Amino acid sequence: MSEVGVIGLGVMGSAIARRLLAAGHRPHVYDVRPEAVAELEAEGAVPAARPADLAGRLVVLSLNSATIVERAVFGPDGVLSGDSKGTLFVDMSSIDPASTRDIAERAERQGAAWVDAPLSGGAPGALRGELTLMLGGSDEDVARALPVLRILASRTTHLGPVGSGQLGKLVNQVLVGCGFAALAEAAALVRAAGLPAEQILAALTGGRADSALLQEFFTKFATVDLSPTGRVANMVKDLEIARDFARTRNVPLPMTTAVSELHRWLVARDHGASDNAALMLYYTGGAEA
């Protein structure tokens, strides 16, 4: 599909739109914040006055909750408020699997197709075209989406029917959320000892503690670098979705619960919009350095 729409121009959605621009697409973009649309328009994107203007395209959704996804799709000015023929939704939001299946079934009844494609790699990965995507949907719909998704991602895995991608993302977020908490504690030790973060990272590289998470975030945490790569509030949402799903299967998640509460502590102190490195504020008494 030559024309691509992007709905939701937060940290991730903006990075997705910029990656598409860099690849030669001219995405049609929509956000409830006119200033976000204007910023992307200045870089070459086509502004949309309402989600309905994006019908008939491959529409990437990058939104914060199932309620917002539902509104963008089915609301009075939603994508499916008019002629929905040919619309293929690629939902890169992180929402619960049950809501994904429900929304997808309703969209399909109106002639649209759905692929859930939650991501790992954050805004930096999107800008480089190196996201990891977990896909749910029919073979046919995933095949239609792949030419665009391969612009954004270096790894795509089709896990099964609609909702499967969101289940894969839950596993990812449990590992990443708990990993962030471990990084924050390790970085707090480094800061307390006055050790150079870059040298500690070099010492750990190649050992059992090494990981993509360590390489990307250790010095960011140790220096309390709050430049945006993700939001604390989104991590709380994702970990709570994982906990809710686990309860339906009677699976205990004690570590995930503790990490979720640590992130919730930050939200309660008005750091919900802050980067995940704000976990360091727990150890620095609120100081940013």
Automatic annotation (TrEMBL):
<dbReference type="Pfam" id="PF03446">
    <property type="entry name" value="NAD_binding_2"/>
</dbReference>
<dbReference type="InterPro" id="IPR036291">
    <property type="entry name" value="NAD(P)-bd_dom_sf"/>
</dbReference>
<dbReference type="InterPro" id="IPR013328">
    <property type="entry name" value="6PGD_dom2"/>
</dbReference>
<keyword id="KW-0560">Oxidoreductase</keyword>
<keyword id="KW-0520">NAD</keyword>
<dbReference type="InterPro" id="IPR006115">
    <property type="entry name" value="6PGDH_NADP-bd"/>
</dbReference>
<feature type="domain" description="6-phosphogluconate dehydrogenase NADP-binding">
    <location>
        <begin position="3"/>
        <end position="160"/>
    </location>
</feature>
<dbReference type="Pfam" id="PF14833">
    <property type="entry name" value="NAD_binding_11"/>
</dbReference>
<protein>
    <submittedName>
        <fullName>6-phosphogluconate dehydrogenase</fullName>
    </submittedName>
</protein>
<feature type="domain" description="3-hydroxyisobutyrate dehydrogenase-like NAD-binding">
    <location>
        <begin position="163"/>
        <end position="281"/>
    </location>
</feature>
<comment type="similarity">
    <text>Belongs to the HIBADH-related family.</text>
</comment>
<dbReference type="InterPro" id="IPR008927">
    <property type="entry name" value="6-PGluconate_DH-like_C_sf"/>
</dbReference>
<dbReference type="InterPro" id="IPR015815">
    <property type="entry name" value="HIBADH-related"/>
</dbReference>
<dbReference type="InterPro" id="IPR029154">
    <property type="entry name" value="HIBADH-like_NADP-bd"/>
</dbReference>
